Amino acid sequence: MKDGFGREIDYLRVSVTDRCNLRCFYCMPEEGVQTLTHSEILRFEEILRLCKIAAAHGIKKIRLTGGEPLVRRGIEDLVREIKAISGIEKVAITTNGILLAEKLDDLCEAGLDMVNISLDTLDKEKFFKIARREPDGLSKVLAAIDMCVERGLNTKVNVVAMQGINDNEFVALAGLAKDRDISVRFIEYMPVGKNDVGKHIPNDKIREVLEGIYGEMVPDERIYGNGPAVYYKPKGFVGRIGFISAMTNCFCKDCNRVRLTAEGYLKLCLQYNTGVSLRGLIRGGASDEEISKVFADAILQKPREHTFNDYLEKKEIEDKGMSKIGG
Ligand code: SAM
Ligand code: SF4
Asked: Rounded to an integer, what distance in angstroms lies between the CA atom of residue 83 and that of residue 88?
């Protein structure tokens, strides 16, 4: 369905847990966050019911995220059941990749269409410094990426670019796509959560650095996924390089997505809390028709755009971390 600004909303990101097996310093504090209790988190049947209602309103793609979605037991069953919903064309997962190798076969068998793997460094020690868990995390993630490629799964590697942290690794990270049919995407750090890593690095700067090594980048006109990334294909590359320029190139006018948090809050924009709690309705005995109406009314309230850059100037930031929102 269309929102109040005429944008077609066909993509729902569902956070299935706020728990995580890593503690990436830009996302979660070392000691973790106050996690939701078991009963606060939507049960699978509640998620499925909401996905069916969303599909009836034109949602075609669902991405499972978190926290870390692969720590939730039975995630492959959820993938299978969401895939079976009439109108749902694609089911994707965003993961830190630690548990992916061991779950990949079950996920593929369940019908997973796409996977986004987060990876910010190719240096073992730095990986541990960033993630603060899993000393062997890097090799697990790299192995998982190769397994995804072997299985022909649509695979993207997401890199959050950070000054003084991984700004000496962009060429090497982009190089992952040289011989692999994957997309490596650079994401400008967004001021979400109170884990400030400083100012974002503009993606144009990263592209300049990469062009210095890999030569002129030819824009890849074909669409990979339905997101805000712009893709390039350096000469000789099997894969692609993508840029998600959340800070320097606001893509809100084409925004096609809404989010469902682990506790069942329909969040209409990454930045604002505008939205509605659907869990209360479900657990209060509301009918599908009632929930459906609330869903449709909420979509019409989706904000026009984020104002992260104003936030930066005012030194105000959304205090709910990405682990609560799902990225
Ligand atoms: N645990 C999974 C993972 O790491 O892929 C899924 C959830 S995580 C919150 C989703 C994505 O958000 C990750 O790619 C992560 O790097 C990214 N992220 C977290 N905080 C961010 C921030 N402040 N700005 C930009 N991306 C961020
Ligand atoms: Fe966990 Fe993903 Fe946040 Fe890292 S970015 S702490 S893996 S939720």
From this structure: 6
